[in-house]
Amino acid sequence: MSRDTRTDGGVQGEPELKRGPFQRWVASTIKEPQKAYRAMFYVATIFFLATTLFPFYFLLVLALTPENAPLALFPTAPRFEVFLDVFDRVNFLRYMFNSLVLALSTTAVVLLLASLAGYVFGRLQFPGRTPLMLLILAISYFPPAAFFLPLYQLFTGNVVPGLSLYNTPGSMILPFSSLFMPLSIFILTTFYGQIPDGLEDAARVEGTTRLGALFRVIIPLSAPGVATAGVLTFISVYNEFFFSQLMNNGQPANWAPIVGGLLSLQRAGQFQVTYGVMAAGSIIAVVPVAILVVVAQERIVSGLTAGALKE
Amino acid sequence: MARVHLQDVTKRYGDVTAVEEMNLDIKDGEFITLVGPSGCGKSTTMEMIAGLTTPSEGTVNIGERDVTNLPPKDRGISMVFQNIALFPHMDVYDNISFGLRLRNYEKEEIDRRVENAASIVQMEGMLDRMPDEMSGGQRQRVAIARAIVRNPDVFLMDEPLANLDAKLRVHMRTELQRLHKELDTTIVYVTHDQAEAMTMSDRIAVINEGELQQFDPPLVCYNEPRNEFVAGFIGSPSMNFTTGQLTQTGFSSEFYDVSFDTTGIDAKPGDAVTLGVRPEDVYPTEFIDDASDPTETIEAEVDVLEPMGDEIFVYLMLDEDNEGGMGGTAAGDDSLLMSVSPDSDLTEGDLVEVVLDRAKIHLFDDSTSLAITHGVSRASASAADAQSEEAE
């Protein structure tokens, strides 16, 4: 007896079942489970896209809606000049410049020190290696607020007379570096530990010191790891709020980063909160990071595929 | 070009002693091989010559300089590694010129030297290749070019052929010998493969458990092994060993006796000794004329035949009770490995009579495992009489 199934899912020889389109779809997915998986994939994707992208879209709506106009999902009379207003009302470029300088210098400090630490943790055997590593990782889980008071006292010259870092880049680069360093140390330790010993030995026999081997062989071969650590540090600093807001008085000349810029945009309107300009400022602030992620992602992926170490 | 001298070099890792009081005096221009089983300390010894590891005790001299505490880059050495260790992010030219560039040589000088080194290893025209675009043999040639381009005093090679396939390995072996003739540099070579050690080196340093066992030319190690370890390690297949004891009239064991002149042998009758004989010095009675000084016949049963083409390895069982199978191994006391010419018509299960060549018998003292004698001779009639009289 033929077991061929019919288009309606019924069994051959029985009267055709009366089914709606959904029932027919269900019947067909039972035959072809792939279909159901694909449907679930689309549902999940749409859900995540909506929850992540919608706030961003709403930020755009907020920026483009003119003051005093009612908010709507699709603004009727978008006002693009708001992006220029951002630069008119405050020195927003200077705030962005400050943020970039802070992020880049922190990244440089972190990469340099974390490279040395990563070399030690990843490639040398010494007593107490694991406890030290755990200690460093533990520090990264401390709440930044715990460090704030002592650091504030220190940086405002109340501990060492004459040493005042408040309102200077140092007051932010120092805490940022120590807070974000453990993650980079962890990443670089893993990468440097995977470089075969023979390559380092070869470099040392050929004429480098251990440090030379690190910079000439180990770091170039760990480029994807260094890029990852660098990008993560950069983004963390760029997005940092706590110390960024508290270690300066919010003036662009005093190295206040974008946080300070956005907060001063809030105060830019005389008597009302200027959501539109703040939203526009936020969007502008996102651009450098968005570009960095897109560029770095390609580099990291290409590095991961091309940098496979063959011995 | 320099001599290398290791004086009482010891390396400890915690409680583990990797190398114990190593003394090596390597002459200028000599090709020597450090050979031994895995984990015997040969690589550690080489790393101490290279400066990648600092000795716990002792001194290392290269040329007239004490280099014990110098970093690798200042020792005038170059090295070829087991895993080849070309820098994957540099092309062939950059790999070869790495050391020269670090030492700030002129561009023209670098070009000239790289060209020259590349031509020695026959890699001209491949200077812009990346390491992952080359075969294993080509990569190894580049690694050798990188090592010779700086004209080092000493050339260290840590199992450079271990990762190559068998055919290429034999080919590279002759190339390395040619290279040694061409460069006339001191070469220290590490391998666990005794065949490599035998074929290439001027002298072999046999190392076991961190201690130097023997440091002699290959054939001396082969013919006059200093102790049981060297005897068993050098030569493939391995030497046969039978434990027994020395008697008035020769050697006696559970499975066979061999009579020889015991006068002049530095051991007393009754001492526990091990008799060693190489497979090629065991002869079936049909070829008894090939043995220069045949012993009494020994009865045995043919267990397994291994035809190699140019010779056949015959595993013999000495113990009559042995029923064969897993029990009989060539390393055991109750078996004997014999190599015979391929036109022999032995078949498995045959009962045969074999003789040993007295001139090729080695005796080892069981208490020290040191060699007592290499080769014994037939007891003369009068000596045998004297001994029998003594016994009475």
UniProtKB/TrEMBL annotation, chain A:
**One of the Pfam families matching this protein, by short name:** BPD_transp_1
Subcellular location, in the record's words?
Cell membrane
ABC transmembrane type-1 domain sequence ranges: 96-296
Q: Where are the transmembrane segments?
A: 39-64, 95-120, 132-152, 172-192, 213-238, 273-295
Q: Name one GO cellular component term.
A: plasma membrane
- Taxonomically, the superkingdom here is Archaea
| Keyword tags | Cell membrane, Membrane, Transmembrane, Transmembrane helix, Transport
Instruction: Give the matching CDD domains.
Output: TM_PBP2 (cd06261)
**What is this protein called in UniProt?**
Carbohydrate ABC transporter permease
The organism named in the record is: Halobaculum litoreum
* Source species taxonomy: Archaea, Methanobacteriati, Methanobacteriota, Stenosarchaea group, Halobacteria
